[in-house]
Known about the structure:
The protein is of the alpha/beta class. The chain has 21 helices and 26 strands. Helix 4 links the parallel strand 11 (about 135-140) and strand 12 (about 165-170). Helix 7 crosses helix 8 and helix 9 (about 315-320) runs parallel beside helix 11 (about 375-390).
Amino acid sequence: MRRLRSHPISFLFLAAPGIAAAQWYPEPDLVLTGAEVRTVDAEDSLAEALAIKDGRIVAAGTASDVAALAGPNTRTVDLTGKTVIPGIQDSHIHFLSLGRDITTGVELSYAESAEDIVAGVRDRLAESRIPAGAWVVGRRWDQFKYPAMVTRWQLDEAAPENPVALYRVYRGVAVNTEVFRRMGIEDGDSSTWPSWWLADPDNFTFEDQILREPRELTVDGETVTREVPTGVFLGSRASRLVTERPPPDDFEDDVESVRLGVEELLSLGITAIVDPSSRMGHNMRVYQEAFNRGYLRLRIAAVYEGTFNTHAPEAISTHLDGIKVNNLGDRFLRWRGVKVYGDGGVGTRSAWMSEPFHMWDELEGERNLGNPVVESYPEREAQYRAIRSHGWDLHTHSCGDQSMRQTVDLYMKLLDEMQEEGGELPDLRWSVIHAYFPIEPKTRVLDDMARYGIVAATNPVFNWQQGFSFAANSGPQRMARLQPFRSYMRGGVIMASGSDYGVTTHNPWMGFYALLTRKDQKSGVAHGEDETVTIAEALRSYTWNGAFLTHDDQDRGSLEPGRLADLVVLDLPGLDALEEDPELLFSMRERIVATMVEGEVVHGALPSP
Length: 609
């Protein structure tokens, strides 16, 4: 156990040994005492008590020393048997739809069979009283986890009067027969069949596939057997063939989704987030309205503009010229940074790799190195320069090791130029998003990231929720190196953890589980156990490291004097209990006693005196 901080600090009005404190002494509004306080300071010190004034921490130390600061108007709360941690930051969450998903969507993160998917659809129809003819929408299925993928005929039985669209964790959709009918396609009328009905289009990439199976049908008046689509489309091009989609939600629906989503995240101990795409400004307008109405009781610390793919540099410049709000906002809502796409993902075999995907000879018949978005270094550099010339920070989706190598090479080139101009390396905190493979032999980037201060914006929960499919596509050796948490942290790279909801569950504690165990959800196999980390390191990745990514590390992310009092009270006698028994992480929602932002309880309640 780390010891309590025990060094004298001087105050404006008095000196008090045994605590760390701000350089002035007010009468605290609130003293929290008797807990294990994980400060997440530079030494990962422990404390027993905190004093809070005007939304900031003014002291952290032993129970007796902090108690001595209390005045007649100070409220003192005994947290004996509890643990206090800084508020969690989810550094990569597509947040806007969360409130809508938890109230009307079908949650498929935990489905392990086609039957589970069908039951989810049936249950949601019953719970939400979705009327006949209205869309049923679900998210986060992963066909690798199921003995057999769900079919449209199974979905037809669960929702005979509703169109159903269930979206894969990444790049895929499953629909029922009603959706095909709305597209004008009838099984029994071959004249309505599109060109792709019986065979895949020529423009499909390695990731694209339409699942089919033989069915006995009555077609044009004759009984025949045809291999027809099951309703499952894999890959971005395949998914776009489904032209009937749920209608977009209106602005008011989006604002309400934010309100509900805020409550949900606070209930899990999340007090700050990064939304990695403003959807060309739409999300930011919704968030601003939610802010105006008082709904933002957590921090949207950064909203990245974009996302940019193959856009011409001139088009990027024109778009950014029209915004003119770079780094605009306050500590509850800030528009900062631009997101660029470098490649696809591992689950769809589309990440840009230096070595082919596992079993390429059997599955594709030719070496599959994935799908780079912009393979040309000069073209990608021109995009980066257009963004940088407007003052926006760079954040690039790079899953495969070859994509990471391109991203880091170009970041270094631009940073070197700025260092030559300014005399020192600029502190810009650009990130590589997802950043799966930094230590591959041909492309190793980890050391360069550490040297240039490039942040790894990782999603640990992938190793749990999608670990089974990632292992199947990467192969066991590479899977052991995918998101190498320990290598990142001990190699000097700041690793800021996030969920990537709506691709994954938004529950941050599943990310903690992946950091501590590297077990996948389907098999329970730990892939690369030597890349697990301690609970203290996991906590830092979700707190101080996240604040560092958004340039807020001097204001929050730790429970040090002078920092904002964003914190979570946990019903745990000590955080090390999670390291000793990671299975406790599955019950963390019930262990959130209170979530506080700037010293105010925004979820739950503090114990009564």
